[in-house]
Amino acid sequence: MTHNLLKINWHHWLERWDAQQSGYLPYREERFQIMLDAIAHLLPESFTAIDLACGPGAISQRLLNRFPHANCIAIDYDPVLLAIGQGVLGTMGDRLRWIEADLTQDDWLDQMGDTQVDAVLTTTALHWLPIDRLVRLYQKLGQVIRPGGVFLNGDHLYFPPHLAIIQRLAKAVQVQQEEQSFSVRNQEDWQQWWQAIAQETELKALLTERHRRFQPRFTEHEPTLVIHEAALQEAGFREVSTIWQRFDDRVLLAVRW
Ligand SMILES: C[S@@+](CC[C@H](N)C(=O)[O-])C[C@H]1O[C@@H](n2cnc3c(N)ncnc32)[C@H](O)[C@@H]1O
Questions:
Q1: H helices then E strands: how many in the chain?
Q2: What local confidence, expressed as pLDDT, does residue 220 receive?
Q3: What is the dihedral of CA 131, 135, 138, 142, to 10 degrees?
Q4: CB of 36 closer than 6 angstroms to any ligand 1 atom
Q5: What is the 3-state secondary structure (H, E, C) of 79-127?
Q6: Which residue of 14, 78, 120, 191 sits with most ligand 1 atoms within 8 Å of its CB, as the best mutation to test the pocket?
Q7: Mean pLDDT computed over every residue of the chain
Q8: Exposed e or buried b for every residue in 143-164, given b needs 16+ CB within 10 A?
Q9: Other CB atoms within 10 A of residue 123 CB
Q10: How far, CA to CA in Å, does 54 sit from each of 78, 127, 186, 211, 254?
Q11: What is the structure's pLDDT at 194?
């Protein structure tokens, strides 16, 4: 880490990140816990997991704290969020490795080497990918997760169009929830968080790089649950099912053949 980055209070930004994310997802911690409960039942004490699209490493932090014999590989493409995660968590006693890679490209796998893992966990992230890239990513996960290993995705996985009333209900609940957080309780939202961190002059270069990497890529599309399930089955996952749900916010579990 360069000298000027040592001045940044990474813990402060991580706390604000978690608060901001919980504004969108009041059950965020419960969702993490369900994912880790599944891991506790399905994997041996010692295992290797990937925290996919890790941001500042929310899953890595909670997973490595809960499972002292586990290792984790945290992958993301955002240089600012990665810097926060590395600044707070470091390597967690040589058990956490960080990879900077774009998940829409296949070369993130090259950076992994020949490593096969027992689990891949991801939260609030894969909706960022265009559907063709999501399907491709699931194919790659089918290769990188060992037989018997698991994939867990915590995210809004939308109801299909033919369930239009239920789809609208889930959206209305989400909108109301966000109003509660950001208007009534005055919680900082995503945009305000990014505006605030942009004031850190030492982060200017990383913020510029983030802007370059992500700006043209933001996509507005909503892959439904059915698309996730079908793509995972196609990629070699045997049992695929929702194991936790609040309207369309779910944890999807898939077990590799
Ligand atoms: C809302 S954040 C969630 C972060 C973290 N999983 C959490 O729950 O706090 C979405 C993450 O997806 C990452 N992401 C989006 N597109 C990506 C891509 N093409 N390659 C790698 N990471 C990506 C973003 O950089 C960001 O860290």
A1: 10, 7
A2: 59
A3: 180
A4: no
A5: HHHHHHHHHHHCCCCCCEEEEECCCCCCCHHHHHCCCCEEEEEEECCHH
A6: 78
A7: 95
A8: ebbeeebbbbbbbbbbbeeeee
A9: 23
A10: 9, 14, 26, 18, 19
A11: 98
In short, whether 13's Cβ falls inside 6 Å of ligand 1 is no
If one residue of 22, 50, 103, 178 were mutated to test the ligand 1 pocket, choosing by the most ligand atoms within 8 A of its CB, it would be 103
Say how far apart CA 63 and CA 6 lie, in whole Å.
26
Residue-range domains of the chain with CATH: 3-256 (3.40.50.150)
pLDDT, one tens digit per residue, over 182-213 is: 999 999 999 999 999 999 999 999 999 999 99
In DSSP terms, 132 is beta-bridged to none
Residue 99 beta carbon below 6 angstroms from any ligand 1 atom? no
Which among 55, 56, 54 is positioned nearest to 10, based on CA atoms? 56
The closest alpha carbon to 240, from 162, 171, 145, belongs to: 145
Residue 125 Cα to ligand 1 midpoint, Å, equals 5
DSSP β-bridge partners for residue 246 = 249
